[in-house]
Amino acid sequence: MKKKILITAAVMLILAVAGGGIFTVVSGSLSKGNLPRYLPEKMQVNEDSPVKGKKVIFLGSSVTEGYSALGKSFVDFLERRDGITAVKEAVSGTTLADTGKNSYVSRLKKIEKSDDVFCFICQLSTNDANKDIPLGGVSDSRNINDFDTSTVAGAIEFIIAYAKENFNCPAAFYTGTRYDSENYAKMVDLLYEIRAKWNIDIIDLWNSEKMNAVTDEDYDLFMADPVHPTLAGYGLWWLPEFENYLFNLSEKENSR
After folding, report:
1. Which of 69, 204, 242, 245 is buried most deeply by CB count within 10 Å?
2. pTM of the entire structure?
């Protein structure tokens, strides 16, 4: 019986791969939220999108990458539906804090400097929470060389300062949706402290009443696990939040 189960699992995995990603294996099961009908290319294009052609930089880890959604995230949906020009700098398992060459801080420095960036959006990484990276505190300085990037706070402040200096555009951070993590809850609170200093924007999925009001049935469709969305989660649940932010930002820009 055990041998039969192993053979069946192997066949399912082969079919998932051979089928061009019809399903994806997530935590040992097949996710219905990654059916072909939820792919970005299946979504209707918004020809009148106010952010069409605008360049947006995204810095993040697995959630920005689309780790449990066939490598597609809300970034890819924004490219498809709204026609943005996206720079998607995402590596799974990486931290905001400078813990090596793949950290947010290190990879940020490799993004080409530009004056034509509409917006810079950074993920508040769950990896820092899971790896117990020290929170640190908000600095009294605005000098980019003064921040302790081995802490969450110092890394966030460095990222904001760097983005403002090298991309000359609004900077925003986005949170993940609610899951059971005291460490991440503290990081969200810290982000608001930093916002008070730097006047950044926050796309707050963690505290959103709308996002937290999702039914259990939809949650099972939208999330592969407590942290990572499926294609359906990105396209049907997360995308409108990012569109609202970018559309409002465009409206502010046009009213100046």
Report:
1. 69
2. 0.88
CB 179 within 8 A of CB 227: yes
Distances (CA, A) of 58 to 89, 117, 131: 6, 11, 22
Domain that holds residue 166: 36-255
Instruction: Compute mean pLDDT per 10 residues along the chain, 256 residues long, and list them.
Output: 35 38 41 96 97 98 98 98 98 97 97 95 98 97 97 98 95 98 98 97 98 97 98 98 98 87
Number of domains composing the chain: 2
Q: Over the Cα atoms of the chain, what is R_g?
A: 19
Give the pairing of strands 55-60 and 117-123: parallel
Could you give the CA distance from residue 76 to residue 71 in angstroms, rounded to a whole number?
A: 9
